[in-house]
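Write out this protein's structure.
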Amino acid sequence: MQLISSSENKAIKLASSLKVRKYREATGMFLVEGWRSVHEVLGRPELIAAIIATEGSSKEVDWDRLSADKIVLVEPRLMRQICATENPQGIAAIVRKPQWSWEQVTAGDSLLIYLDRVSDPGNLGSILRTCWALGVNGVIMSRGCVDLYNPKVVRSTMGAILNLPVLPEAGTAEIVALQQSGYSVVVTDAEDGRPYYDEDFKVPTIIILGSEGHGVSWELKALSKATINIPVEPEVESLNVAAACAIITAEARRQRQEGREH
């Protein structure tokens, strides 16, 4: 394999451009950085456009899963150019965005999460990781959410972004369609509703979570079957949306597993 030293190389220019949202959208690709994340990508070889690595890093990769034309060896200074992190680990991947259908996400007795204008990349990444870990069938994102393929989101999902079905840019019409097909629409509210553990999550359910700054919109609240909250100490104003998601989905998983055992 040839060692690339020029920043004008086609793969280097493409990888560098993926730090910008409009190029991610134009190409249908995004960049994954670091050992752990690239290891997750190797489990989905059909999504890999290229693996970019320094010579030292490349020795630790199982290249048998990839054809030689997808491997790009570069000088360390070029890794610093293409990566968003200050101290890159010497390996990155150019990855095609996974494509999920509405049917894949909503089939059967799905448990879904709908995110209403969640704008913090770290929160979104943590939510996706939690949902993947706790068996949520899919995540639906409203317009106004942070870009799903923002580098900070990608890093914090720890592989969930490749394996958990996510449908961005959805609105109230999609919620209405789910409701008409038999889904229970449940809205979270920091100040109103019954305790989350009193809700029946064993039926097909979509749980709507809003950002800390805005909460769930009134338009979405008007569609809901139920409003739930997480009881907290009086002096605590509200929980981080990622923490709230983890608490509620853990309860939903408990109920669903318990239901299968009986």
